[in-house]
Amino acid sequence: MALSTPEAVETAPAKSDIAASHTRRWALWFAAIAVFVWVFYTFALPNLGSSGQTIVREWMPLGSVNEALVWVICAVGLNIVVGYAGLLDLGFVAFWAIGGYTAGWFMSNFFNQISNGFYFLSAAPPNQPGIHLNVWLVLGLAGLICAGAGIIIGAPTLRLKSDYLALVTLGFGEIIPQVFLNGADIRGFNLTNGALGISPLDNVSPLPFGPSTIAIGDASIAISKPLGPFDTTAKYVMFVLVAAFAVFVSLRIREGRLGRAWLAIREDELAASMMGVPLMRSKLAAYAVGAFMGGLGGVVYAVHNNSVFPDRFNFAISIILLAMVVLGGMGNVWGVIVGALVLAWFNSTGLPQFGDSFNQQFGTDINFPSYNYLFFGSILVLMMLFRREGLFPETRTRQVLQEAERSDAEELDGGEV
Amino acid sequence: MTANVDTRNALVADGITVRFGGLVAVRDVSFTIPERGIVSLIGPNGAGKTTFFNVLTGLYRPTTGSVTLGDRDITGQSPHKIAQLGMGRTFQNIRLFGLMTAAENVMVAMHSHTTSNLLQIVARTRHNRKEERDSRDFALELLDFVGVGKHADEYARNLSYGDQRRLEVARALALRPQVLLLDEPTAGMNPQESAVFVDFVRRVREERNLSILLIEHDMSVVMRVSERITVLDQGEKIAEGGPDDIRNNPRVVEAYLGRTGTEGSAR
Predict the structure, then answer these.
(1) What distances in angstroms separate CA A89 from CA A82, A84, A157, A174, A376, one per listed residue?
(2) Is the CB of B121 less than 8 angstroms away from the CB of A258?
(3) Any idea what DSSP says for residue B217?
(4) B79, A274: Cβ pair inside 8 Å?
(5) Per-residue pLDDT reduced to its tens digit, A47-90
(6) Residue A336 in domain
(7) Mutate to test the interface with B, among A23, A144, A252, A257 (most CBs of B within 10 A)
(8) Is position A41 within any domain?
């Protein structure tokens, strides 16, 4: 046993210092990339030749980047539940849906019972019915509503052990979208508008104050101008900010006492409780924080689409999110971001574009996008076979998952009663 | 020391019975741990030691009987509550958080002594920063105390077996317990290591000012360290007393010889 202690470690800097510099490096990279993308689409793209523009518009439209950011926000939230606390959640789409509908309720003409409209720092045109709140307020509201929903869902279910928990969350992931689908007539009250969904949503603006736009060169940058459906660059800035907030929160929490409690629960639930960690409370906290981010993702998704439809919120979303977390490296926020970006892009743009090129090249007529789950499934199977720890695993888990399984041998001499 | 140990009790278990269906695992066992005492619970395999232990730590609810820690009734409380009230424990087969560093392992046990809420953690308020610093300092102090201070930033699973045992003690001490329960702490140690461990247990009691309950198979350790020994057999308490009483108690000898032949009684 003593042999497994590497001597070199004693002279190395403390693990916490390494982790901090590691975090700083990744954060800098992502900030740089985010700024680069914005500069590229705002200034460089309009000056590219037409063929260059076509390639970018086909292979990397900003719309698909924005959508990928929605996935990032939700995947980072799911990572708190699955990666940090080790609770398998197969119904994360429920929070995404609740967040989306919160945006629908508080940012549209939908509640036309309020005929004069209720406005608060909104960029929507005046004198319309319905509730019109500022989008940032709606983000916070949706987060809180989802956190509350997470606690309500979690309270009875989190007592269950892993597999059963997964099944129950799966159920909730199915139930919530069904509620929205069938919520057009709740004793005469139209809560969700059924399959028609809520559309359009209010225009949002990046900020509720300031000049409407600023011009730099020949590009104009929106500040408080209401954003139409095609203002993808401005929306990109907004989505990046929300994603950065989600990442910031999940990194900070990981460091503190709550993050340690989650890790301990993931490692050994019984031992954690014997060390004074309240299991239910800690798990509920993980669930609530994850749900909060799911809510943020839901609002951002609604803004991205300018609408909410119940059939968008299907089971596949929960599974894709889980695949993103697993592919990126469970528990490592940066890995999860990469996983989410890659899979989301692949799903929305990469695969269809590849399919088109392939079909043109070989004169075939294969519908590639319809095989997307085949690809996802294959990726997951290959990952489990060859790189179980994910592309960018947490430092902690890297070591274990690359080692041979030794728990079986350890069980034998445990002699536990 | 022995003269005044029974002035006050750190823990009192009164008339504990545990039934699993028709099986009575523990029958009407009463038991006390005197303040600042070191007592042991022994018995052949299947005597109900572990079941009794699990009642004390809140894992099982006793069918009848009550457990009092200090002056609080903790019968049927949840394990984390009991831990917070001042009961630390180690595990027979080490249960550290393998992928957390030694310091982090100890800091987990300080959960109930820290108060930062979610918002304070995210905002990293002054309170939270101070708490984190204090936790880390106390963790390092405890690690030094048990002798694994230089491994503070290594993952627990990479420590040597003996260090893992010590780390478990440090983690339990972070709860600032009144009572420390050690479940077969010398399992897997050779005689020299066990001897060192006996001294270590005494030092923990002296310097951390707490009471210690040992469950132990190694009779040489039990006889050397305990001020009082309780013997369980088939779920019942068959003897209680100082090491010499137990050594010469015919019922104890019978219980051991009757089951395993050579183990225990010879020593």
Answers:
(1) 7, 12, 11, 12, 18
(2) yes
(3) S
(4) yes
(5) 888 888 888 888 889 999 999 999 999 999 999 999 999 998 99
(6) no
(7) A257
(8) no
pTM: 0.88
DSSP β-ladder status, B9-20 and B23-34: antiparallel
Q: Map out the domains of chain B with their CATH numbers.
A: 1-86+177-267 (3.40.50.300), 97-175 (no CATH)
- Chain A: residue whose CA lies nearest to B151: A10
- Among A224, A264, A217, CA closest to A123: A224
Mean pLDDT of B35-54: 89
- Taking the CA of residue B2 and the nearest CA in chain A, the distance in Å comes to 30
Residues contacting B46, CB < 8 A, separation 6+: B234
For residue B4, give how far its alpha carbon lies from the nearest alpha carbon of chain A (Å).
31
pLDDT tens for each residue of B206-260 = 998 899 999 988 888 899 999 999 999 988 999 899 998 888 888 888 887 765 4
Q: Is A416's CB within 8 Å of B108's CB?
A: no
User: Dihedral through CA B84, CA A414, CA B152, CA B88, nearest 10?
Assistant: 20
Residue pointed to by tokens 């260090």: B163
8 Å CB contact between A331 and A83: yes
Best mutation site among A144, A245, A255, A274 for testing chain B: the one with the most B CBs within 10 Å? A274
CA B74 – CA B79 distance, rounded (Å): 10
Contact across the interface for A272 and B108, Cβ inside 8 Å: yes
Q: How many domains does chain A have?
A: 1
Does a structural domain hold residue A49? Answer: no
Amino acid at B234: Q
Greatest mean pLDDT among A35-39, A45-49, A95-99, A368-372 lies in A95-99
pLDDT confidence of residue A404: 53
Its domain, for residue A291, covers 6-35+62-313
How many angstroms separate the CA atoms of B23 and B13, rounded? 21
